[in-house]
Amino acid sequence: MSLPPILSRLRLPVVAAPMFIVSGPDLVIAQCKAGIVGSFPALNAREAAGEPPRLEAWLTRIEEELDRHNQANPDSPAAPFAVNQIVHKTNARLQRDIEICHRHKVPIWITSLGARPEVNEAAHDCGGITLHDIINVTYARKALEKGADGLIAVAAGAGGHAGPQSPFALVQEIRAFFDGPLLLSGAIATGGAVLAAQAMGADLAYIGSPFIATPEANADPAYKQMICDSGAEDIVTTAAITGISGNYLAPSIRNAGLDPVALGTGDPAQLDFASPGGSGKPKAWSQIWGCGMGIGAVEAVIPVADRVAQLAGEYAAAKARIAAL
Ligand SMILES: Cc1cc2nc3c(=O)[nH]c(=O)nc-3n(C[C@H](O)[C@H](O)[C@H](O)COP(=O)(O)O)c2cc1C
């Protein structure tokens, strides 16, 4: 099956993954202008009580800046953007956020942690497509039954709530029954890894953590630097932080006064998007920093445009290297 046009005209076959707290309009606009799909979780747009919805303001700003860019650069228009909806029972804002995204005709909807037909219907009704993230074939089948257009396979090594499966196993099993849009995530941080994802059978790579180490990301400078200074062995996989398994930077766990090797187990009932850091202290995401295992490739904090240019250069070089074999 061919890719929907909205995903096939990108400079690089890459969708930048939504990241709690980290992804906001500055990051999304820079990603789209650089030619890859930019995205943010709707929940990142938080207003104080009584204020108008910040999500509305963020969408308006993204649309206006990308429009201006497209008028000034008709030969290199920006890539489309995506909004991530956390479809979880503790996300009390879901219905309101769906209505705002529907009104703004958001072109790509990324859904996580639950597949619901009404979210897919809202996206389709305004001309959008939905991509649902999954960690195994059971969830993949459910997402498709509920009407998702495409899948994001979140494999081992991904930042945030990662899956436990090898990308080779996950992609091969999904491709046995699904020939629609398939994105792969988990420790993809070089252009060669983007090409590898395609060689494996995915259509696009889904990349999160490397974009934390950019000036446009909404993250503590120490978090950005820790990513530059760390590698795969500095990542701890644990369910103790939010209740479901995720990958985190061990030095941030130590800085929060905890022992990364003695964290205990987590309880899925802990997961709470009304208070996403969890009720306990220290707080997940703001003090204990999520990160994927691909960051050995990230050596410096550089602008998004440079990171995408680097990925594009590596992607072309990897293609040439493989073609010459
Ligand atoms: C700090 C952080 C926060 C994240 N927050 C979200 C989120 O709010 N919603 C979501 O669907 N995925 C979230 N993710 C997962 C990413 O969307 C993506 O699956 C992951 O970053 C891909 O792996 P990589 O970081 O190795 O590239 C988060 C990841 C990180 C690192």
From TrEMBL:
Domain of life, per lineage: Bacteria
Chain segments annotated as transmembrane: none
Cleavable signal peptide: none
Keyword Transcription regulation: no
A family per Pfam: NMO
InterPro entries with a match to the protein in the record: Aldolase_TIM (IPR013785), NMO (IPR004136)
Any GO molecular function: nitronate monooxygenase activity
Record key words, sorted: Flavoprotein, FMN, Monooxygenase, Oxidoreductase
Family per similarity comment: Belongs to the nitronate monooxygenase family. NMO class I subfamily.
Protein's name in the database: Nitronate monooxygenase
The species this protein was found in: Paracoccus suum
Taxonomic lineage: Bacteria, Pseudomonadati, Pseudomonadota, Alphaproteobacteria, Rhodobacterales
